[in-house]
Each structure stands twice: as C-alpha cells, then as structure tokens.
C-alpha cells in the first residue's frame, strides 16, 4: 500500500519570500496601510497644487491655462507606470501561480485606465484654448489613446471569462504581450506622426521647463502614485473578499458578519 | 516537421470542404474597399491618397473576420484537446495552424490587393509596394491574431472582444504598411518601412507561437 | 483515499500513479489528498454522481489540467517533466468525439495517425475500419454517420494508436449493445497485452481485473 505523506510534496505555489502572499494575511495588512497612503497622497497633492498654482511662473506664451499640464503629465506618467506594474503583477501570478498577484493586477487595471482617460481629457482641455482643437493626433496623445485601449481590453477580457483562474492567466498573457508592444506602438506612432506631420502643434513640445514647473509635476506625480496605491489596495481588498468568499477566514471577518 | 505539414494539410483540407467561409471574408475585403469611394467621393486624387490606408484597414478587418476559425471549431468539437495531447510540441501545431490561416486568409489578400489598388488609381510601383507590404504584413496579422483568438476561446462575445484586444497590436503593422505605400506614391524611399515590417515579422515569428500555445493551453485547462 | 492495483503485470515500468491530488473547480474543492495507482494490465473504473469530479480527475491524469497540489506520475516520473513522451503513450477520449465532421472516416483516422506519429498504411486503416463494421462507409463525411458509427471510428483509432494508457471518459455512451460488447473486448485485449485503462462510466463494466474508485 502506498500511503504517502502529503506534506512532503511540492505545492504549485512557490513558498516565496513574500510573507504576505496569502490573501488572508495580506488583507489586514493592506487595511492598515490604506490610510497611510491617503495621507501621503493628500500631502503631496496639496504641495503639488500649491506649487502649480502659486509658485510656478506664468508662461509667457500660454498664460495661466497651461497649468493643466500639472495634471496631464503626471497622469500620463502614472498610466504608463501602472501598466508596467500591472503587467509585472500579472506575470508574477502566471509564473508562480499565486492568486494574490493576479488580484493585484486586476485591482490596478481600472486605476491605470482612469489615469489614461484623465491624461487624454486634460490633454483635450489643454489643446482647445491653446491651439483651437479638442484633439490633435500627436504621437503622445495617440499613444495614450492606444494605451487606454490596451487597458480596456485587459479589463474586458477578465470580465468575460467566468473561470477566475483562467481569467487571471489569460489576462496575464495579454498584459505581458501589451507591455512588449507598448514601445513598438509608441515608436510606430512617432514615426507616423513625423511622416504625416501637418501643422506642427505638439503637446510634447514643452516650453523650456522652469525648475519650479518640474517640481510641481514631480509632486503631483507622487500624489497620483500614492493615490493609485491607496485605491489599488482598497480595490484588492474588495476583490479578495469577493473571490475568497467561500473561505472560513472571510466569513469570520467583522465586515462580512455584520 | 512532418507534424507541421500534417496539421497544415489538415486545416487546408477542412477549408476546402467549406469554401464558403473563406470566400465570404474575401468578398468582405472587396466590399469594404468599395464603400469608401461611395462614401467619400470619386475624386481620383483623393482616392489615390487614401488608398493605402483604406486597403490596409480593409485587410486588417478581413483578417479579423477569419481569425475565429483558427481555433474555435477545434475547440468546440474537442479536436484541440487531442492536439494538445498529441506527442508533438504544441508550439509546432499552433505554428502550423497560423500558417494555414495565412495561406487561406492572408495570401488571397496579397493577390487581390492590386485589383483594388487599380480601382483607386494607384500607379504600378505603388501596387508593387502594396503587395510587398501585405506579403510581409499579413503573416504578422495572422500571428498576432492567433493570440487574441486563443485568449478568447469559448468566451461570450468572443469575436468582438478579440477585435478589441488585437486591433491595438495591429497598429504598428498598419502604420508601416500603409506608410510605405503612401511614401512610394509621393516619391519617398520605402526601404525603412520594409525593414521595419521585416523586423516585426521576425519578432512575431520568434515569440508569438509560444505565446499562443500557452494561451491555448490555458483555454483548454 | 488510496487505490493500489497490482496483479501480475507484464511490464513493471508501466505504472500510473497519482499522489495527493487536490482539485478545485471554480470555488468548490472537488477532492483532496487523492492517491491512486494503476499498474500494467489493470483497469480503474472511476464512479460517482454527476458533478463529483470524475471528468476533472481524468483531465488531471492526462495533464490537460494542473492540480492545485499533488502530482501525477507515469513510470515513477512526473508527467510534467516530459509531456511529449507521456503523450506518446497516452490516448484520451473525452466527452466530445473530436472527429472532424467534414472529413471522412478514413481521413480522420489517417489525420490522427499522422499527428500521433503512428505509421498507418491505407490498407491497415481500411482493414481496421471494416473490422468495426464501417466497411463501405469509410469515404463518407463523418457528419453523415450515426453517433454509434462515430464511436466505432474512435475504436478504430484506439486500436491503431498503440498507446499503453487509455483514459476514457464515458466511453460507453451512445453505444448499442453490440458496440458495448466490442468496446469491452477491445479493452480486455488491451489489458491482456499489458496496457492500462482508466475510465468513467455510469454503467457496470464487465471486464475482469477492474478496480473501482468511488469519488
């Protein structure tokens, strides 16, 4: 008779150096961290807004309206950064077969999509008073639009697959393919832009950046980053509750019991 | 290698038994390109200018139409599982399916495009460039499309979702392909476009079969 | 639960084993800590109610699905180490026929032989098909055949495939009495030649050397 000791065999999940890899241990830790990040976001946000409204000089050419770049540029940075982070989490989830990494990717996708949308919207708001057009097909805005499509594709794919694990893995493949393609797409759009360049309006042609402008954008970028982490953690907690609803530890939670 | 030929032979044989599916995609290509002059006007100079873009976009959409055939039928009747359990590397079988798809959906576009180009009053050298870009580009479309087809197997609303997933990835091919034809028509050099298309093709050949094979395995788990 | 089957086996290297299998479908855990061992010349009949995980277990054994924990071993080696070698010795028949409806019976058989790297001459293919009462129908498209006849094509494939391990999911479905006998004979001969069989069925299986696993 082969009575085999179960514990000596490897799990699919790698016993990893994240002590927080299990949803049940991560959930309370995330809960404690969320207020911290909200505070940081508020702090950076106030500092950034102060710099952008009061400290940065009025632009000689564009007047006061240019100040919207303090939202537009950090939003674009964050949308690209979040895509990388999301793809990294999804990739980790695929390689190590950890559910929590996949949940993090799932949580970050809407945040990243929102950043991309914000970037496009503020880009349009900037473009209209400055150059008279709500939309210009310059390389960066067009790439941002495509990035939004990539986000929406990821969200749509995960939403249409019923089997959660399959949705995680399929989304991971899509995100990784997207990450490889983003530089290719950006390069090709830049190429296309120079080829068909009509009027030479470009939102990427920034006026000589005063030091203070850079500081303003950096502070706002940090604000968005902290905001993204806070919202991401909140979302992942909600996702954990939803997906682990059948486990004992979730049923014991105060939030669930009440 | 024999297995690769076997799977290509199988897929082509299946297409021969159901020719109508393939022909409809080709008719779609012709119909869509004919819609643009009807919508925009028959000014020859304008048509010449929009021809590269129109023909390329129509090629993209026709390829999309034919993509669900790559895996969906085999998925539904259980043949895909048998392929996954055969003693052949899945990568080889997927590559064979992509090649068969290109022969059926991509190659006819290459052959049909000059006819459409004439309708749009493109000159002879531009027609050659058009065929060349489609020859390099349509395999990339089949390759990238296989990823979308594999990811959305058996999913509700799969075809539309697949289009949403793949079209952003098609954009570089579109830009370089149509850009080459446009550049040629205004007398610019096209070697850069062709080398970029070639690079995309090599990259796609090197990576996509593995990605698609992984996606198929996830779908049949 | 543990099942261990070993009678006088003709080839000691042919052993299918599963250790500590845990299977989760959706949010439900179907079974956990499942052990089984099937040696050469033996047949395992997996039984249980609908939805209890029979098909899932079979798919885990083929390697199509990965278990949450535990492993499947063929000849004392994990099947994930050399899947292609495992696939060469494995024949899986699932719920669906996996026959291409637009191809003929002969073409289906030859297509699978080519993909499975099994040499199969046209004469042998035709002979096998007529052995399963398909003479005269080899060149009809499969969608013209009845469900029972389609299953007979699959039996022809089982015979020509030369696989050691057969994993069959509900193989007796849609078969008339005579076909059921033929399939049972086929399985018995396979076991006698030292092969292994794992199958699920709602009916009683009248084959010797059958052990039952209740899920």
Brief summary of the model shown:
The complex is a heterotrimer of chains A (258), B (221) and C (215). Chain A is mainly alpha-helical.
Topology (SSEs and partners):
The complex is a heterotrimer of chains A (258), B (221) and C (215).
Chain A: H1 23-55, H2 69-96, H3 99-131, H4 139-160, H5 164-195, H6 211-243, H7 248-252, H8 254-257
Helix pairs in contact in A: 1-6, 2-3, 2-5, 2-6, 3-4, 3-5, 3-6, 4-5
Chain B: H1 2-17, H2 19-40, H3 44-67, H4 72-77, H5 79-84, H6 90-119, H7 124-151, H8 158-185, H9 191-219
Helix pairs in contact in B: 1-6, 2-3, 2-6, 3-6, 3-7, 3-8, 6-7, 6-9, 7-8, 7-9, 8-9
Chain C: E1 2-5, E2 15-25, E3 28-39, E4 43-47, H1 54-62, E5 69-74, E6 77-78, H2 83-88, E7 90-93, H3 105-115, H4 122-131, H5 147-161, E8 165-169, H6 177-192, E9 196-200, E10 210-214
Parallel strand pairs in C: 1-3, 4-9, 4-10, 7-8, 8-9
Antiparallel strand pairs in C: 2-3, 2-5, 5-6
- State the low-pLDDT regions of chain A, or none: 1-17, 198-202
Approximate strand percentage of chain A = under 5%
The tally of helices of chain A reads 8
Give Rg of chain A in angstroms.
22 Å
Structural class of chain A: mainly alpha
How do the SSEs of chain C run, as a string of H and E?
EEEEHEEHEHHHEHEE
For the report, how would you describe the main beta sheet of chain A?
none
Query: What is the strand tally of chain A?
Result: 0
Mean residue pLDDT of chain C: 87
What does this structure look like?
- The complex is a heterotrimer of chains A (258), B (221) and C (215).
- Helix content of chain A is 74%, strand content 0%.
- With 258 residues, chain A is mainly α.
- In chain A, helix 2 (69-96) packs across helix 5, helix 2 (69-96) runs parallel beside helix 6 and helix 3 packs antiparallel against helix 4.
- Chain A is globular.
- The model of chain A is unreliable at 1-17 and 198-202 (pLDDT under 50).
- Chain B has 221 residues and is an all-alpha fold.
- Chain B has one domain (2-219).
- Chain B has helices at residues 2-17, 19-40, 44-67, 72-77, 79-84, 90-119, 124-151, 158-185, 191-219.
- In chain B, helix 3 packs parallel to helix 7, helix 6 crosses helix 9 (191-219) and helix 7 (124-151) packs antiparallel against helix 8 (158-185).
- The longest helix of chain B is centred in the middle third of the chain and has 30 residues, at 90-119.
- Chain C has 215 residues and is of the alpha/beta class.
- Chain C has 6 helices and 10 strands; from the N terminus they run E-E-E-E-H-E-E-H-E-H-H-H-E-H-E-E.
- Chain C has helices spanning 54-62, 83-88, 105-115, 122-131, 147-161, 177-192; strands at 2-5, 15-25, 28-39, 43-47, 69-74, 77-78, 90-93, 165-169, 196-200, 210-214.
- In chain C, a hairpin with a 2-residue loop joins strand 5 (69-74) and strand 6 (77-78).
- In chain C, helix 3 runs parallel beside helix 5.
- The longest helix of chain C has 16 residues, at 177-192.
- The mean pLDDT of chain C is 87.
- Classes of the chains: A mainly alpha (258), B mainly alpha (221), C alpha/beta (215).
- The interface between A and B is medium-sized, with 28 and 29 residues.
């Amino acid at each position: 008779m082969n009575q085999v000791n179960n514990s000596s065999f490897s799990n699919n999940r790698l016993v990893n150096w994240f002590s927080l890899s299990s949803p049940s241990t991560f959930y309370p830790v995330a809960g404690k961290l969320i207020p911290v990040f909200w505070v940081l976001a508020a702090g950076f946000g106030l500092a950034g807004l102060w710099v952008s409204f009061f400290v940065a000089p009025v632009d000689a050419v564009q007047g006061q309206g240019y100040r919207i770049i303090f939202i537009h540029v950090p939003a674009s940075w964050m949308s690209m950064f979040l895509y990388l982070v999301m793809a990294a989490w999804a990739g980790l989830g695929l390689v190590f077969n950890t559910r929590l990494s996949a949940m993090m990717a799932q949580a970050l996708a809407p945040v990243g999509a929102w950043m991309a949308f914000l970037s496009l919207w503020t880009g349009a708001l900037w473009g209209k008073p400055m150059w008279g057009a709500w939309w210009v097909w310059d390389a960066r805005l067009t790439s941002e639009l495509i990035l939004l499509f990539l986000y929406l594709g990821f969200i749509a794919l995960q939403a249409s697959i019923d089997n959660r694990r399959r949705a995680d893995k399929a989304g991971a493949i899509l995100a990784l393919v997207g990450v490889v393609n983003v530089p290719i797409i950006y390069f090709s759009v830049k190429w296309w832009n120079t080829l068909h360049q009509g009027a030479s309006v470009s939102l990427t042609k920034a006026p000589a950046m005063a030091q203070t402008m850079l500081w303003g954008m950096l502070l706002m970028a940090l604000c968005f980053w902290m905001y993204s982490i806070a919202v991401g953690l909140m979302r992942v907690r909600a996702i954990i509750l939803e997906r682990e609803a059948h486990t004992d530890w979730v049923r014991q939670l105060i939030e669930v019991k009440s | 290698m024999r297995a690769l030929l076997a799977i290509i032979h199988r897929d082509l044989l299946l297409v021969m038994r159901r020719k109508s599916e393939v022909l409809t995609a080709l008719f779609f290509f012709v119909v869509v390109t004919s819609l643009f002059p009807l919508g925009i006007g028959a000014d020859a100079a304008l048509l010449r200018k929009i021809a590269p873009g129109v023909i390329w976009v129509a090629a993209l959409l026709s390829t999309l139409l034919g993509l669900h055939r790559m895996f969906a039928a085999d998925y539904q009747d259980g043949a895909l599982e048998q392929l996954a359990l055969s003693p052949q590397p899945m990568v080889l079988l997927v590559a064979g399916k992509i090649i068969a798809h290109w022969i059926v959906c991509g190659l006819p576009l290459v052959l049909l495009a000059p006819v459409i180009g004439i309708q749009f009053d493109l000159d002879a050298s531009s027609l050659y460039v058009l065929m060349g870009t489609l020859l390099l580009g349509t395999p990339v479309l089949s390759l990238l499309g296989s990823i979308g087809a594999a990811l959305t197997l058996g999913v509700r609303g799969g075809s539309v979702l697949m289009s949403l997933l793949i079209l952003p990835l098609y954009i570089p091919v579109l830009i370089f392909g149509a850009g080459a034809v446009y550049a040629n028509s205004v007398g610019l050099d096209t070697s850069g476009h062709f080398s970029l298309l070639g690079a995309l093709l090599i990259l796609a050949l090197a990576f996509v079969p593995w990605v698609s094979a992984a996606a198929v395995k996830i779908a049949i788990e | 639960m543990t099942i261990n089957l070993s009678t006088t086996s003709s080839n000691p290297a042919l052993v299918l084993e599963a250790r500590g299998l845990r299977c989760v479908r959706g949010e439900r855990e179907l079974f956990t800590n499942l052990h089984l061992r099937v040696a050469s010349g033996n047949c395992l009949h997996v039984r249980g109610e609908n939805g209890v995980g029979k098909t899932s277990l079979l798919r885990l054994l083929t390697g199509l699905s990965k278990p949450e924990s535990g492993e499947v071993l063929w000849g004392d080696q994990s099947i994930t180490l050399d899947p292609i070698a495992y696939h060469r010795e494995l024949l899986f028949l699932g719920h669906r026929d996996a026959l291409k409806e637009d191809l003929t019976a002969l073409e289906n058989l030859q297509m699978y032989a080519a993909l499975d790297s099994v040499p199969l001459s046209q004469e042998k293919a035709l002979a096998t098909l007529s052995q399963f009462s398909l003479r005269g129908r080899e060149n009809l498209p499969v969608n013209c055949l009845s469900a029972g006849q389609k299953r007979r094509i699959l039996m022809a494939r089982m015979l020509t495939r030369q696989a050691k391990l057969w994993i069959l999911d509900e193989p007796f479905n849609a078969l008339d009495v005579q076909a059921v006998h033929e399939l049972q004979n086929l399985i018995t001969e396979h076991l006698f030649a030292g092969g292994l069989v794992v199958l699920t069925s709602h009916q009683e299986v009248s084959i010797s050397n059958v052990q039952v696993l209740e899920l």
